[in-house]
Amino acid sequence: MRKIILLLIIFSNFSFGQELVVSTNRNPAILGEQITLEFSIESKAKNFQSPVLNGFRVVSGPNTSSSSSYSFANGKSESKIITKISFILQTIKEGNFIIPTASVEINGKKINSKPSTIKVVKGNSKKVNKSIENNLFINVEINKKNPFVGEQIIVTYKLHTRLDLENTEVSAIPNLNGFWKKDLETSSRFKREVVNGVAYNTAIIKKAVLTPQKSGELIIDPMEVKCSIRTQNQQNRRDPFANFFNSYNVKEEFISSKEIKINVKALPNNEPKNFNGTLRNKASQLE
Hints:
The protein is mainly β. It is built from 3 helices and 20 strands.
């Protein structure tokens, strides 16, 4: 009897530990393009209850597939089954659209997904320029352009690309003279981002808290990055086996962000005694 109860507890925990995960290959998406919406769970599932997909035209789906794997390590064997339910959707209007809860059934238990949001933005109807500067660039974002002395600002350097990059390396970092600076931890993973209606793979290459130490005009100077760009060998474009033998060339390009001017205001003459300290304390909270 004790063995039966133990098995029931393990089986129950296994069922409740499952999670129906929602993902999409394009978020944000551009108006008019097709995206893949996928629900996946690590178990054999059935009775999928589809969410209402307002704001999209369903091109295909729900399409159900499953895969299994088997592994043996340290004297223990493990088998895994993954069930996937996917839709091909076409965006039909701009906005933020909520994907409501969907559900599947596992061993008589109902497992729900969490609601998620897909952002749809207007695309650029103009033909995309294929030059390097339009397909590979660094953009600098700041949250304030007119801070007071001692008031923190956050600066973020983003690398945007539509090219196949083999490697990137920071070749020159900004001096940021006149600022107290503190680098923040960031993820260098690329994600999709839409800039002026064009989709790019985007990564944050530097993010920092800056605190101006004097009033007047201060400069956020450029950052330079060396990029190794993969290009297909033109002589092998018609060779169907070329892709299997890494038949490409690597071209190096140096790109720089633009200089940004900051107008730093002097502290008011009648500021409270703790005015400057309060601003500095805000910066220290991000360390």
